């Protein structure tokens, strides 16, 4: 995904067209907060500018990124994924400290892995620190994400990273808080989304190939919402000094009782893959696997 975004960014950055200026007053327009990197033909908005459509065909994909970087906060957006036969197509929605696959990047990933008609989508999440990832989890969803918009959110503070689907916590990643532990908390991140072809690995391990006769593949976005700290130089910006930042405060350092119930249900029913249980791949499990999501 980063690779695609990078090459598109390098070659295909297109100036914003006047359409984006026609948005309803007050709600803000795409280019207030985002830049895109795709051919004009691959990015469209609804007439009022509030829904965005990214498309993928054999020639190109499409991606966008926030203009601002953030360090800690609540990051949320509604997505509706490519319907029908979308095997091989991946819609990525992620935060990253760089707009490329740099060797020192931090990243928080949600990837939606397309499937053949009628077969379920999976979501894959991952955490990178300083260029290293390998922290994958995969979950089933409890609805068809191609039929309607659903909310996908990330809570990020110095204590935990929580991935939410419709406000249900599906993954909790804790900070062990010792020097150089595997927890991205120093580098501010942009928020990105992109749609790309990953039929070399995504669907059933790459067995299912993208059917280009079904192109273009389109994913839709609306209601971007950030409640967080916009990064400003110099470091250390975004060190919380107020109690106004709920996402940084004690109650956001761990799941609430209601969230724990939801999370227990997810853990019982929806987990397909958890790197912390993959002792074949990791004879010695990464250390953060010993941290409890319940604390
Ligand atoms: C979006 O852009 C507006 C205008 O530049 C800015 O005031 C606002 O803080 C931005 N919002 C976010 C969430 O970055
Ligand atoms: C981050 O990664 C780079 C490149 O792999 C390495 O040179 C550097 O020492 C790492 N930094 C830390 C703090 O681990
Ligand atoms: C991490 O440990 C340091 C030193 O003990 C402490 O000051 C800091 O508040 C801790 N941070 C978190 C996120 O627990
Ligand atoms: C696609 O559907 C198949 C069959 O139900 C399933 O095994 C697989 O996990 C699904 N998702 C992906 C990304 O392969």
From TrEMBL:
Keyword field: Apoplast, Cell wall, Cell wall biogenesis/degradation, Disulfide bond, Glycoprotein, Glycosidase, Hydrolase, Secreted, Signal, Transferase
UniProt xrefs under InterPro entries: Beta-glucanase-like (IPR000757), Beta-glucanase/XTH (IPR044791), Beta_glucanase (IPR008264), ConA-like_dom_sf (IPR013320), GH16_AS (IPR008263), XET_C (IPR010713), XTH (IPR016455)
Gene Ontology cellular-component terms listed: apoplast
Residues with attached carbohydrate: 115
EC id: 2.4.1.207
Known role: Catalyzes xyloglucan endohydrolysis (XEH) and/or endotransglycosylation (XET). Cleaves and religates xyloglucan polymers, an essential constituent of the primary cell wall, and thereby participates in cell wall construction of growing tissues.
Stated family: Belongs to the glycosyl hydrolase 16 family. XTH group 1 subfamily.
Name the UniProt record assigns to this protein: Xyloglucan endotransglucosylase/hydrolase
Organism: Olea europaea subsp. europaea
């Amino acid at each position: 995904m980063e690779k695609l975004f990078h090459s598109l960014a390098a070659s295909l950055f297109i100036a914003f067209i006047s359409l984006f200026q026609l948005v309803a007053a007050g709600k803000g327009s795409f280019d207030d907060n985002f830049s895109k990197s795709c051919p004009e033909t691959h990015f469209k908005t609804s007439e009022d500018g509030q829904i965005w459509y990214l498309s993928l065909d054999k020639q190109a994909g499409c991606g966008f990124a926030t203009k601002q970087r953030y360090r800690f906060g609540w990051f949320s957006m509604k997505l509706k994924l490519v319907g029908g036969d979308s095997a091989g197509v991946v819609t990525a929605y992620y935060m990253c400290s760089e707009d490329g696959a740099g060797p020192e990047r931090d990243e928080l990933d949600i990837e939606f892995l397309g499937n053949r008609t009628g077969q379920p989508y999976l979501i894959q999440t991952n955490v990178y620190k300083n260029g290293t990832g390998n922290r994958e989890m995969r979950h089933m969803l409890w609805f068809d994400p191609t039929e309607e918009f659903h909310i996908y959110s990330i809570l990020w503070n110095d204590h935990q990273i929580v991935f939410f689907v419709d406000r249900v916590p599906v993954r909790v990643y804790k900070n062990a808080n010792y020097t150089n532990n595997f927890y991205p908390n120093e580098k501010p991140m942009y928020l990105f989304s992109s749609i790309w072809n990953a039929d070399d690995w995504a669907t059933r391990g790459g067995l299912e190939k993208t059917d280009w006769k079904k192109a273009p593949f389109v994913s839709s976005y609306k209601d971007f919402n950030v409640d967080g700290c916009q990064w400003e130089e110099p470091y250390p910006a975004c060190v919380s000094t107020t109690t106004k930042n709920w996402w940084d405060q004690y109650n956001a350092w761990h799941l609430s009782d209601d969230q724990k119930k939801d999370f227990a249900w997810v853990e019982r029913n929806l987990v397909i893959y958890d790197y912390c249980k993959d002792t074949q791949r990791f004879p010695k499990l990464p250390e953060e696997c010993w941290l409890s999501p319940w604390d």
